[in-house]
Amino acid sequence: MIHNHSDLLNKVKTDLPADELLSDLSDLFKLFGDSTRIKILFALSESEMCVCAIAELLGMNQSAISHQLRTLKDANLVASRREGKTIYYHLSDDHVRTIIGQGFEHLTEKH
Amino acid sequence: MIHNHSDLLNKVKTDLPADELLSDLSDLFKLFGDSTRIKILFALSESEMCVCAIAELLGMNQSAISHQLRTLKDANLVASRREGKTIYYHLSDDHVRTIIGQGFEHLTEKH
DNA sequence: CGTTCATATGATTTATTATTCATATGATAA
DNA sequence: TTATCATATGAATAATAAATCATATGAACG
User: Fold this and answer.
1) Closest CA in chain B for residue A49
2) In B75-98, which positions are buried (b, 16+ CB within 10 angstroms) versus exposed (e)?
């Protein structure tokens, strides 16, 4: 750490957002960083779905899906409505589609 | 799983990308889903930096930063060049900025 | 009511991953 | 060549989190 970069450090340090914001940001991306959740979000970007439909679509058990839906709901990425015994989930806003779309572009645009 | 949603399932199933692609997508987001890596990427979006500068900026030891840079390099999110004993890292393309920007927007646009 | 269906939840197990420590590599300069 | 500086790497530890199992909740309907 001898070699000098204090000028650069000061510059970057002032531009870097607060730790808490960066932590929130990584927490957000973490939600997209699991294949089960990405599949759920992708499915919901097509259509509102109930829990057991998602479970059947992904070939996973109901409990696992419920846990992940809870995570996504706590983060306000999805919302739900009840209709009798069934609970339907949907994306809570369009940012989810945009973020996934950007990731997709990154993957597919690479040669 | 008695209640019927096979029509919906068939529709969504055809639109859902292949498992491998969705897995790649979550792997991509996973890289942004760690606060150390997000900080590194953010810093590099300001300026090319050497390893020890990043370590000093984040208040972490050199080894931890090196390990994370390796992860980011393996995923082609960052690239490096050598100048004498020093190795400078930079973002490998603009998608990184775009993806982080989208996440940022999502966070800040919420009331 | 009690039963059934759809979903949620808590606890446990299992798997994954970030950081640390010690050491290796690789370039430079004396 | 030896010493030093900057970085990389392997192994081990520690922390986090996903899936599973068993069970709880809560609505509808006989």
Assistant:
1) B8
2) eebbeeeeeeeeebbebbeebbee
pLDDT-flagged residues of chain A (< 50):
1, 111
Judged against a pLDDT cut of 90, whether residue B4 lies above it is answered with no
CA–C1' nearest nucleotide, residue B83: C27
Structure tokens given for B77: 């999110």
Say which residue the tokens 């927007």 belong to.
Answer: B105
Q: What is the least distance, in Å, from the CA of A83 to any CA of chain B?
A: 13
Please write the tens of the pLDDT for every residue from B17-59: 999 999 999 999 999 999 999 999 999 999 999 999 999 999 9
CA–chain centroid gap for A83, Å, is 26
Q: B57 and A100: CB-CB below 8 Å? A: no
Distance CA(B75)–CA(A106), nearest Å, equals 12
Which of B24, B95, B103 faces A25 most closely, judged by CB atoms? B103
User: Of chain A residues 13-42, which have a CB less than 8 A from chain B?
Assistant: 13, 15-17, 19, 21-35, 37-39, 42
Say whether pLDDT at B13 is over 90: yes
Rg (CA), chain A: 19
Close Cβ partners of B57 (under 8 Å, ≥ 6 residues apart): A9, A12, A13, A16, B39, B43, B49
Q: Residue B61 CA to D2 C1' — how many Å?
A: 27
pLDDT tens per residue, range B67-93: 999 999 999 999 999 999 999 999 998
